[in-house]
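If your schedule permits, I should be very grateful for your opinion on a structural question. Please examine both parts with care and let me know of anything in them that strikes you as inconsistent. The record follows directly beneath this note:
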Amino acid sequence: MNNSSIIIETPLQLFEHLLSEARTGAENVTPVLLELSQVTEDPDIKEALEARIFVSNNILDRLDQCFKLIGARPTKLGGRLQDLFIEECRLELAEIRSPTARRLYVLAKANQLIHLRMGEYSGVIECGEMTGHCGVRLLLDTCRTDDVCFTELTKRLMRNIVEGNGVPSAVVHMQGLKPD
């Protein structure tokens, strides 16, 4: 179904639409993270991305359970945003020569993508209050929490790369990373 053909007449229909968007986003994030994991040679980054892919499958199960609890089915929506995101990543990554910068770029893009997901969850969680199903709220909160945990991990990995490169964190903000 095309987003432009969707007519929303009630708050519950809006919630179901937002929940469908969250599910589509969760489904589409896996191929992006998979591609990012394939372009990195850093074992820690690869492990973090692969773990997040594993978590993504569990998130899909939780979102499906939300639909079950409210007696609805997800609407199939497009995934153009993720397609544009990964294409832009490919183009930019091809231009980055520094191995350290490439590692940081992969983490930054994974972090950016997951922050987008967190924004989706924030909206759907608030709209979900109207369902009257406390289980829906709990399931959605755990999806967002998984994303928060991943972004904290990516920040820590980025900090380790910067500090391991011999550049104190305070200097990075003022002068940028030293060349490889």
Q: What stands out?
A: The first helix runs from residue 11 to 39. The CA atoms of residues 50 and 105 lie 17 Å apart. The chain has one domain: 9-175. Residues 170-175 have pLDDT under 50 and may be disordered.
